[in-house]
Amino acid sequence: MACPQTADTNALDVLGDLVADDMKRVNETIVQRMQSPVALIPQLAGHLVAAGGKRLRPMLTLASARLCGYEDGEDHIRLATCVEFIHTATLLHDDVVDESVLRRGQASANALFGNKPSVLVGDFLFSRAFELMVEVGNLPVLGILSRASAVIAEGEVQQLITTNDIDTREESYLEVISGKTAELFAAACKVGAEVAGRTHAEANALYAYGMALGLAFQIVDDCLDYSANQERLGKTIGDDFREGKITLPVILALQQANRDERAFWSRTLGELQQNEGDLEQAMALMKRHGALEATAQRAREYGEQAKEALKIFPPSPMHQALRDIVGFCISRAW
């Protein structure tokens, strides 16, 4: 069995319905705050926003706030917008670093507009995010999201260090994805509790939920790079392989590699000397050693951790929706 290939879209629809009114206001705020007299800024940012995406991270902020009883005010809207701007900014920067040409099945912003505008508009969105944080005026929230921004950058730098290093251990890989992906999931959830004025225990439970969910999400993403197809994934298949990224499927395949197989990984990922058919051979080696199924199992384990973290909260439709979204993240196939 390879990576999960059937997305539980119903779970996403249910969560979306529960936060629909709030999400409409978030989308309106996104459009408002992207505006600038420098025409290229809203044009480029709008290209990425219009490309779609599930808006999962801001939905998690809204859902967490509602789970914690937040009723009045606009702070959860500002924070959800802030989370989406941080995410969008990192996407712009990541695509430049990775030299990606596709994003969500469409041409990436850097492919259309160039690297320099993409980086600078990413900086603009980070700045807008911090303006929104300040408007909320909640010091713990400011600390959570500003720390998340720094940790995301650290995770990306750490990934650069591990790229092409076939001796990378699973622990190092987890450090990378904890920073570059899971930290924003965790922060997005925790600020919902903070803005609702809930206890440290509840805020930390939502942080733990988001962290485990984010780990599962990224592990599945790395699995799909070797098992999905381009139309379903929305990016070029095998990008991680071509860039020499050491992800969990590679690490698990390497753990069982014989001398010839290790030489293959060293040539293709360590030295980036790749020939036609090498991606297919890499996928065959993963299949031979059960690396993709083992990767999927790791994602399921983190999914269970995410559900466990929610047990501090009483049953409710929102509680169930957050539990069910775990299954969506693990079984998705875009």
UniProtKB/TrEMBL annotation:
It holds the Pfam family polyprenyl_synt. InterPro entries: Isoprenoid_synthase_dom_sf, Polyprenyl_synt, Polyprenyl_synt_CS. The keyword Transcription does not apply. GO terms for biological process: isoprenoid biosynthetic process. One of its GO terms (molecular function) is all-trans-octaprenyl-diphosphate synthase activity. Its cofactor is Mg(2+). CDD domains: Trans_IPPS_HT. It catalyses: 5 isopentenyl diphosphate + (2E,6E)-farnesyl diphosphate = all-trans-octaprenyl diphosphate + 5 diphosphate. Keywords: Magnesium, Metal-binding, Transferase. Belongs to the FPP/GGPP synthase family. PANTHER family: ALL TRANS-POLYPRENYL-DIPHOSPHATE SYNTHASE PDSS1, GERANYLGERANYL PYROPHOSPHATE SYNTHASE. This is Octaprenyl diphosphate synthase.
